[in-house]
Design a protein that fits this description.
The protein has about 300 residues and is of the alpha/beta class. The protein has 3 domains: about 80 residues, Winged helix-like DNA-binding domain superfamily/Winged helix DNA-binding domain (Arc Repressor Mutant, subunit A); about 110 residues, Periplasmic binding protein-like II (D-Maltodextrin-Binding Protein, domain 2, 3-Layer(aba) Sandwich); about 100 residues, 3-Layer(aba) Sandwich (D-Maltodextrin-Binding Protein, domain 2). Helix content is about 40%, strand content about 25%. The chain has 10 helices and 11 strands. The strands form 3 sheets. Strands 3, 4, 5, 6, 9, 10 and 11 form a 7-stranded mixed β-sheet that branches. A hairpin with a 2-residue loop joins strand 1 and strand 2. Helix 1 packs across helix 3 and helix 1 crosses helix 4. The protein starts with a helix and ends with a strand.
C-alpha cells in the first residue's frame, strides 16, 4: 500500500526539482527525504527516480505517480471540508498569510466580520514573502493566503494551489512635482528621474522595471525600499519617483503628487486545490470580499 506522506514528498520533488528544496520546504533533512522516497520506490515496485551524480529526476512512472498524488491530495482537502461541514460548526485556528498592504488595508475589517459570523474561529495572521506562500500552503503551514500580481508581472500557476480573484486597484506614479502628461505617457516622462523600487526579486520591483522598459528605457534605481509609506516619504523628500498601488497611497505625506497610470494590481485568495469548499476557507474569503476598501474594484 502506498503511503500518502511519501506520495506528498514525491509530488513535492516533481514540483521543486531537488531533494534539498523538498527538505527545506517541508522541514525534513535531505537524508530523511531520500530515505522516504527509497521506501516509496520499494512500495511501488518500479523505479521512480533516476540518479545522475548528485541530481535526481523522476522517471516516467514517477511523474505519473506524482500526478496521481496531486489528485489524491486534492481529494483529501475535499474530504476534510465535508467532515467539517458535517460537524456544523467552525472552530479552531485559521492560518492566514498576507503581504503588508493587505494586512493593513483589507484584513482588519475582514477579521472583524469573520469574528462576528464565526466567533469560535481563531485567525492567525502571518506576513510572509510572496515567493514563499506557495510552499507554505502546500506544506500545510498556511490554510489560506492573500497574494497579488501586476499587469506586467502575472502570477504563475502553481501545481496544487487554486487562486480566486478578490479585488483590483490602480497604480500611481508618485512624484514630488506634477507631471504634465497624459496617463499613458507619465512613465515615459520620468526617464531622466531617479527611481525608488522594491527589492530585486519581488513582483513590485519587476513591475517597475518592465513598465519603464515598455516606455522605452531602463530606470535608474536610486533607492530600494519595500514599505510603501517609506517610499512615499522619500518621494516627498525629492529622492525620486515610484510606482505605488492605491492602498499603498493612504498615508501619502504632504508634497507627494499621485498621478494615475494605466497599470493594475490584483489581489487574490490562494488555497490548496480542493480546499475552496472548506468552510473556514469559504468563511474568510466571504469576509474578505465584504471588506474590500473603497477605491478597489471587487472581482
Amino acid at each position: 500500500m502506498l503511503e500518502l506522506r511519501r506520495l506528498r514528498l514525491l509530488r513535492e520533488l516533481d514540483h521543486r526539482g531537488t531533494i534539498a528544496a523538498v527538505a527545506q520546504a517541508l522541514a525534513f533533512s535531505p537524508s530523511a527525504v531520500s530515505q522516504q522516497l527509497a521506501v516509496l520506490e520499494r512500495e511501488a515496485g518500479v523505479p521512480l527516480l533516476e540518479r545522475t551524480g548528485r541530481r535526481v529526476r523522476l522517471t516516467p512512472a514517477g511523474r505519473n505517480l506524482a500526478r496521481h498524488a496531486e489528485a489524491l491530495l486534492e481529494r483529501l482537502e475535499l474530504a476534510s471540508a465535508e467532515l467539517i461541514d458535517a460537524r456544523r460548526g467552525l472552530a479552531g485556528p485559521l492560518r492566514i498569510g498576507t503581504f503588508p498592504t493587505a494586512a493593513r488595508a483589507i484584513l482588519p475589517a475582514a477579521l472583524i466580520e469573520l469574528s462576528r459570523r464565526h466567533p469560535a474561529l481563531e485567525p492567525m495572521v502571518s506576513e510572509i514573502d510572496p515567493a514563499a506562500i506557495g510552499d507554505a500552503l502546500r506544506a500545510g503551514e498556511l490554510d489560506v493566503a492573500l497574494i497579488h500580481d501586476y499587469d506586467f508581472v502575472p502570477q504563475a500557476s502553481t501545481p496544487g494551489l487554486t487562486v480566486a480573484p478578490l479585488c483590483a486597484e490602480s497604480m500611481y506614479l508618485a512624484s514630488a512635482s506634477p507631471l504634465d502628461a497624459p496617463p499613458d505617457q507619465v512613465i515615459a516622462r520620468c526617464e531622466a528621474a531617479d527611481w525608488i523600487t522594491a527589492s530585486p526579486g519581488t513582483a513590485c520591483h519587476q513591475m517597475t522595471i518592465r513598465a519603464c522598459q515598455a516606455a522605452g528605457y531602463t530606470p535608474r534605481v536610486r533607492h530600494r525600499i519595500d514599505e510603501f509609506s517609506t517610499v512615499l516619504a522619500l518621494v516627498a523628500a525629492g529622492q525620486g519617483v515610484a510606482l505605488v498601488p492605491h492602498i499603498g497611497t493612504f498615508d501619502a505625506p504632504p508634497g507627494t503628487v499621485l498621478t494615475r497610470v494605466p497599470i493594475r494590481r490584483r489581489t487574490k485568495v490562494a488555497f490548496r486545490s480542493g480546499g475552496g469548499g472548506h468552510p473556514a476557507v469559504a468563511a474568510i474569503t466571504e469576509a474578505l470580499r465584504s471588506s474590500v476598501p473603497v477605491g478597489l474594484d471587487a472581482e
